[in-house]
Amino acid sequence: MGQQNLEISHLNKTFELKEGPLQVLQDISLCVKQQEFVSIVGISGCGKSTLLRIIAGLETYEDGLILNDGKAIHAPGYDRGMIFQESRLFPWLVVEDNVAFGISKENQKRLSKKEKQELVRQYLELVGLEQFAKAYPCQLSGGMQQRVSIVRALIEEPEILLLDEPFGALDALTRIHMQHEVLRIWEHKRMTMLLVTHDIDEAIYLGDRVIIMSARPGTIKREIAVDLPRPRNRSSEGFIRIRKSILQEFFEDQSVVEDFAI
């Protein structure tokens, strides 16, 4: 691991509703090192997606501090890319134009048309979609659309990639394939990744650490290191041991833990 990349210190977030204030995050402190892959799990409504949006600069917060390489985060920036559950591609643009949309204004001006086309081609090649450059999103499968979203977020080489349930809408087999794809990209690009997921196996398979959040207001309940070599075997004794440890945080009934952990 390199130097500390992302630091969250005593972060609080409250939504102002008609019924009154609703605290979503409470005293969140977390350090993520460069090139680390961190998974975040928790029940629905615990604030994990809100936390990711705050890191992305898409959501404000009341107090606390978020630093990336020592610089405070208050707005979106090209140092952070974000992937959502839906691909969020522009349906009227072909694949190569959707990817090119991720190029910053500075690079749009600096690069020639040929250089931009070559850059887009290289990134589509990274995910095996170079032959679909002229296709429209509606002509792609769900998994292919997410791959386009990923390279659109990657094209500016962000320091941090934030993944908010990116495979939640995919079928089980495509989801596993996309997990392999993201892991391959992480190993190739070696950027910092933060993944929010409901899938405990996915969190263990991808993450160096799994952060478990409590029910709302979300706090960091526990942190589990995934001390398993990659590629990981989901049916190995070590994998099952970690799965059981995570499940114990959500279920008091040991029989339920045993059923899920098998």
Structure description:
The chain is an alpha/beta fold and 262 residues long. It contains 9 helices and 10 strands. It has helices spanning 48-56, 95-100, 105-110, 113-126, 142-154, 172-189, 200-206, 237-247, 254-261; strands at residues 4-17, 20-33, 37-41, 63-68, 71-72, 80-83, 160-164, 192-196, 209-213, 220-225. The strands form 2 sheets. The protein has a 6-stranded mixed beta sheet, with helices on both faces. Strands 2-1-4-5 form a 4-stranded antiparallel beta sheet, covered by helices on one side. Strand 4 and strand 5 (71-72) form a beta hairpin. Helix 5 (142-154) packs parallel to helix 6 (172-189) and helix 7 packs across helix 8 (237-247). The two termini are 32 Å apart.
How would you describe this structure in keywords?
single chain; 262 residues; alpha/beta; 6-stranded mixed sheet; globular
Mean pLDDT: 92
| Backbone shape | globular
Number of strands: 10
Strand content: 25-35%
Q: Report the end-to-end length measured between terminal Cα atoms.
A: 32 Å
Let me know the largest β-sheet: 6 strands, mixed
Task: Give the proportion of residues in helices.
Answer: 25-40%
**Strand order, largest beta sheet:** 6-7-8-3-9-10
Order of helices and strands: EEEHEEEHHHHEHEHEEHH
Which secondary-structure class do the elements indicate?
A: alpha/beta
Helix segment count?
9
User: What's the Cα radius of gyration?
Assistant: 19 Å
Low-confidence stretches: none
